[in-house]
Amino acid sequence: MRHSTMTSGLLVAAAVALMLAPAYVHAGIPAIAIPSQPGQSVPNPFEGAPATPNPVASFGVPEHPFMAPNGRSNMHHDAYMTDAYDWSGPLGNDLQVSSTWLGLEECASITFDGHGRIVGLCGSLDGAHLRMLDPVSLETLAFMMLPPRMLRPGTTPLTDFCAAGYFYLDHRDRGIVSTNTNQVWVLSIGPEPLFTLEHIYDLNQHVAPPDCIASVLPDWSGLLWFVSKGGVVGTIDPTSGVTASTTVGEGVFNSFAVDETGGVFIVTAAALYRFDADADGAPQVTWRETYDRGAALKPGMLSQGSGTSPTLLGDDLVAIADNADPMNIEVYRRGAAPEDERLVCSVPVFEPGASATENSLIAAGNSLIVENNYGYENPFSTANGATTAAGIARVDFDVAAETCSVAWTSSEVAPTNVPKMSLANGLIYVYAKPARADGVDAWYFTAIDFHTGATVYRQLTGTGYLYNNHYAPVSIGPDGTAYVGALGGLIRIADGA
Question: Which fold is adopted by the domain 3-494?
Fold first, then answer.
């Protein structure tokens, strides 16, 4: 099914009225540390030793012409969704940990604007908000409320990520964010700490409640693409306001990736797709490849299907994790031309009966990093010293031989973290929660050696459920500082002077 519509005069009038309204601004709110759980003993604050940089060579990811520079634009680093930074992260030298208590508000998506400030999409019990924070002090510089949460059937505030998971900064340093009202808001961010609503694209003709928009990204021509959890895939021409959509009839629970050839790569609960825009800018399916979605919803998954956003590798590959038992890492050819066999290779990871991931893969050179999230159903899954299934694995692929193999598997436990990597120093960063017999819920910022899989160091961030990251990523700022969203706010980890 396809629809096309022009932005109505009523919508334009509403957008203009909102543009003239003042933004919600709270300048100069100082950071107050997230409290640790009262009465719990304090574990060792640091384990291991500082790292010696050991860089990793990788393919170049082109800068997207309509997104902020790589590493600053979105949750997964770039348009390829590689989650691999060119710059260094913390090496473990006299680590300094600080935080800001945001009152049960978790910043799931962290970006960095052209002035070096953090711009985050943060979710709370009542809905999503945009925050601008000082990257050092974590002082809140500006705050904007988005439309309030409208819970969908079968969800809770802890599992409903509609309009609270993904957004991006564009090439003009504007925030592009979907809302619970099935709109896309364009927000300008100037030198002064202020969010100003510039434009609204209303998509209710395409995405009707209780369905909701999961993510929005531009393709290489600047056409905006959106996906809904109900399986609507659509486009917005940002110049004319013309919108179009098609429905695949399969749920979409994560973001997607785009490449310089015009490809838009979307994984549903049943298949991996490549879409391209037709001559009128409407979405069309270029190819579709099914994968093993498993027999049931696993503990640790938000849907029965892949939990990954597609990750692009090199010039012509795309990778996902499926939902088989055990789970497989699968690498496909991504070109638009027909292929006799699109699947390049597939390899199982982790143990049968205990393998699942709800977070995207890291791509570095000819390797992929995957994290095990099996067993995480809610924050109670990690309470009173408990934790989830172990496992961080590196999968290497050989394009010439068309084979995949597991290089190593770490026993670290990262219940729901979106892991990240520094190509400059060769460290993989996860947010770990080891099991403890004493019942202490200790959360650790953890560095793993890409080359060997050995744990280099662990740094305690805090204890108790407020330090649970609950699906939020590690993010690495341009100055090498790491940030982790948590149920209590935002955590900062940086090497000492």
Answer: Methylamine Dehydrogenase; Chain H (2.130.10)
Nearest to 68 by CA among 79, 60, 58: 79
Q: Strand runs (DSSP E) across 248-391, as ranges?
A: 257-258, 264-267, 271-277, 283-290, 311-313, 317-321, 328-333, 343-348, 362-364, 367-371
Mean pLDDT for back-to-back runs of 10 residues, the chain (497 residues)? 39 38 60 86 89 97 98 97 98 98 92 96 88 96 87 65 83 95 94 94 95 96 97 97 96 95 97 98 98 93 93 96 97 92 96 96 98 95 96 94 97 97 98 94 97 98 96 96 97 94
Task: Classify 20 as helix, strand or coil.
Answer: helix
Number of other CB atoms surrounding residue 469 within 10 Å:
25
Cα–Cα distance measured from residue 385 to residue 442, given in angstroms and rounded to the nearest whole number: 8
Global pTM?
A: 0.93
Phi, psi of 439 (to 5 degrees): 80, 5
- d(C-alpha 383, C-alpha 399), whole Å: 43
Dist. CA 296–CA 328, nearest whole Å: 16
Q: Sketch the domain layout of the chain as residue ranges.
A: 3-494
